[in-house]
Specification:
Strand 1 and strand 2 form a beta hairpin. The protein has a two-stranded antiparallel sheet. It is flat and about 45 Å long. By secondary structure, it is mainly alpha-helical. Bound molecules: zinc ion. The site of zinc ion has 7 residues, from loops. Zinc ion (ZN) binds next to loops.
């Protein structure tokens, strides 16, 4: 598989370039990446702020950037939807949930709809 370098705030990351034939592998990688980032976030929340914590947080941010890059690849390969929908097209996981999509390839702004559906948002709208 071909690779390229992604630069983010002076840091470099090697990104695999997925061919169209491996689009399902790319989707699986993004799902796994979201899971890993959510797990890592839960761990980070429990740690006390220290230099170690700051370094881990930076690593976590870089991992988010990498995952967004893979979402962009997925879009370029023609898939621009949330990865958490069942076979009937119903989303079973919110993009905005605390442990939802860290990176989402969707062209549709589900997170906006989810934001507007929050109890606080509807109250503000009805005023
Ligand atoms: Zn999503």
């Amino acid at each position: 598989m071909q690779t390229y370098i992604l630069e983010y705030q002076g840091k470099k990351a090697v990104i695999d370039q997925y061919p169209r034939a491996q689009i399902e592998e790319l989707k699986a990688r993004i799902r796994l990446g979201n899971q890993k980032l959510n797990d890592a976030w839960e761990d980070l929340r429990k740690l006390e702020v220290s230099d170690h914590w700051k370094a881990e947080l930076e690593r976590w941010h870089l991992a988010n950037v990498k995952l967004s890059e893979y979402c962009s690849q997925l879009k370029r390969l023609g898939f621009g939807d949330c990865l958490y929908k069942d076979e009937n097209g119903v989303k079973y996981k919110g993009c905005l949930e605390p442990l939802g999509c860290r990176a989402c390839p969707s062209d549709i702004s589900y997170w906006e709809k989810e934001l507007m559906a929050l109890p606080g948002a509807s109250k503000r709208r009805s005023k």
